[in-house]
Amino acid sequence: MTSVNVLILTGSPNTGGLTAACGMAAKAGAEKAGAEATIVNLNKLNIGNCHACGNGWGTCGTKHICQVKDDFQDLHASLADYDAFVLVTPVYWGEMSESSKAFVDRVRRNEAKKRDRTAFEEKPVLSVAAAGGSGNGLTTCLTSMERFLLHVRAEKFDLIGVTQKNKRYKLEAIREAAQEMMSRLIK
Q1: What pLDDT does residue 2 have?
Q2: C-alpha distances in angstroms, 11 versus 4, 18, 60, 167?
């Protein structure tokens, strides 16, 4: 049987918080299905903001390679090796965290205009927004994540909002969602 791989991207500097717990729940579910799961914390990488080179579209729009040199290039190049993705971000002011947003913005610029298959195309993605405070902003954050999935032609598997109030049963939902997503690929 061929190995099935999932990349779990988390975007919080708090390695012991709600976002990390969501990432670990996804990993547990994916591994229970028999998949190989890799977690990458975007805050531990040097991924800067898009520079909007060449009046907004530099080599990202023509060659689908970002000309800003940092850790993005290696991570971007590895995306094609994965069969599925889990994106987990804390909710900051109704949006993704800065590290998640920088990654998503740069991937979008490099992948969305491809005539060929994107690194995400038709691959299932589980998106999780983790609000540590009031829970306000979950909907706008998940909407932003959904827009990204549309731009890179990914398969939206599920969008899950988690707060401190509902984390007990939502962590279980994340485990089950990741397990189901990967089980469908392993068949």
Answers
A1: 65
A2: 23, 11, 23, 18
| pTM > 0.85: yes or no | yes
**What CA–CA distance (Å, rounded) separates 41 from 104?**
14
Q: Which of 109, 76, 90, 96 is nearest to 7 (CA)?
A: 76
Task: Answer whether 136's CB lies under 8 Å from 124's CB.
Answer: no
Q: Extract the tokens encoding 158.
A: 């599920």
Tokens of 70: 């940092």
Over residues 126-176, the pLDDT tens digits come to 999 999 888 889 999 999 999 999 999 999 999 999 999 999 999 999 999
Q: Answer whether 26's CB lies under 8 Å from 171's CB.
A: no
The beta-strand segments (E) located in 25-106 are 36-41, 84-92, 95-96
Residue type, 67: Q
Evaluate if residue 185 carries a pLDDT over 90.
yes
pLDDT range class, residue 56, cuts 50, 70, 90 = confident
Task: Please name the residues in contact with 25: beta carbons below 8 A apart, sequence gap of 6 or more.
Answer: 171, 172, 174, 175, 178
Q: Which residues contact 91 (CB under 8 A, 6 or more apart)?
A: 129, 130, 131, 132, 137, 138, 141
CB 103 within 8 A of CB 11: yes
